[in-house]
Amino acid sequence: MTEIDNTLALSRAGIDTYRQPVVFMREDCHVCRAEGFAALTRIEVTLGDRSVIATLNVLTNGDWLPDDTAALSEEAWAALKPQPGDRASFTHPEPPDSVSAIRAKVYGETLEQQRFDAIIRDVLDHRLSDLDLAAFITACAGDRLSIAETIALTRSMQAAGETLDWGGAEIYDKHCVGGLPGNRTTPIIVSIIAAAGLMIPKTSSRAITSPAGTADTMEVMAPVSLDIPALRRVVEAEGGCIVWGGNLALSPADDVLIRIERPLDFDSDGQLVASVLSKKAAVGAKRVLIDVPVGPTAKVRSAETAAALAERLRAVGKAIGLTLSIHQSDGTAPVGRGIGPALEAQDVLAVLRRNENFPVDLRDRALDIAGALLDLVPETGSAGGRKVAAQLLDSGAAEAKFMAICDAQGGFTEPGEARYHAVITSRTAGRLIAIDNRRIARTAKLAGAPRQQLAGLRLLVQIGDHIEFGKPLFEIHAETLGELEYARSYAEAQLGLCTIEEAN
């Protein structure tokens, strides 16, 4: 009996599918027909002792691809590392063990450690489809994860990657749960903490649902895609770093889950806590401060929600050996003036450089959080941290440390300006009493942020300002006229974006 040939030559498609291995195959390909593959089929690709589970994209008009060849996305190519002339085999993979656990969670069952371990293992092995991952994320949303399950998920996510060992040194870290546009305190805080002689290897994410993540803003000024040896060199030289966590093997499953969470556009407390604290533990941190902004249009909207989140954070932190402090802050309005990577970077530099027109609210918030983190240092003494933080900032020590960190990460770059600007003005007069965080963030995203680094918007007013008719409220920045008009049209249609209380 003749054995079926299920092999194909390999080519590089040159397509970035962001952490998702994808195979491109012609529909008239003999392997596609023989194996019964269809679009979005999960297939196992094996080359020697290496294999990867990938999603199949079927070409109905595949003139660019020979019928005896499969093209690999960048992620699949990196996993298999083929050489010229290599042929790989293509088969149906065994059903993943964790699908039954995901199904159980969908129907409301409580999962134990072993089942979370299986899910995270299959996440990293690419054995779960995007539909499987979306089902898991949805089943865990809201309050569907108990604290015990959150602890188990956190441990699974940390154990799936590398945990840094700093030889007994005390490691500090901070995180903001987000939802507040322009709240770019991290580069300032890291500079202050490192200038104080402490170690703070800060890994940050790119934007999920916001106009900029810390990594997006920092990348405007210095490289952030460092590997672990480079991260170690920076921290050992300067005491701190601000790098993108997605390039590291620290809680790597989180970046896969974030890829699914981004289009779903929601977070859950359990997954948020597991994501944040697994990364803090993986970076080797022992003393951690979590900032929780609370406001009607922030991610956390009430004191009751903040209290429930704080309880979950403390319980998980204690279970995995972290000394955790929760800092509740004002989340009623954006922080600083810039919203978008380059515009937020300009605000950060204005504070560090002590410019005459620096955003006072960003400076004060950074000092509050840096001070609270310094209060976790036994030698600082209770409530003395903010004074130390202010001295380090006002003396220029924090600025010098920031520049040294940038140099160590690959060199500093001054933020640029977008090509196109449009000013949105007030249609009434009175006192500005509210800015909608979500709508202002959406305006910045429609302008192109964070994909376009120079895009976003600059606030020209603050809560409490007296507003005259026709007064400029904010300025939209974009790299293309199309995005500028898109954002302007949205902003002009949003009457509740800026709430002005008319004078009697």
Automatic annotation (TrEMBL):
GO terms for biological process, alphabetical: pyrimidine nucleobase metabolic process; pyrimidine nucleoside metabolic process
Ranges of residues in domain Pyrimidine nucleoside phosphorylase C-terminal: 431-498
Molecular function terms from GO: 1,4-alpha-oligoglucan phosphorylase activity; thymidine phosphorylase activity
Catalytic reaction equation(s): thymidine + phosphate = 2-deoxy-alpha-D-ribose 1-phosphate + thymine
Transmembrane segments: none
Pfam families: Glycos_trans_3N (PF02885), Glycos_transf_3 (PF00591)
EC top class, as a word: transferase
EC id: 2.4.2.4
GO CC terms: cytosol
Annotated keywords: Glycosyltransferase, Transferase
Keyword Glycosyltransferase applies: yes
The keyword Cell membrane belongs to this UniProt entry's keyword annotation: no
Entries under PANTHER family matching the protein: THYMIDINE PHOSPHORYLASE
Protein family membership: Belongs to the thymidine/pyrimidine-nucleoside phosphorylase family. Type 2 subfamily.
Protein name as it appears in the record: Putative thymidine phosphorylase
Native species: Celeribacter persicus
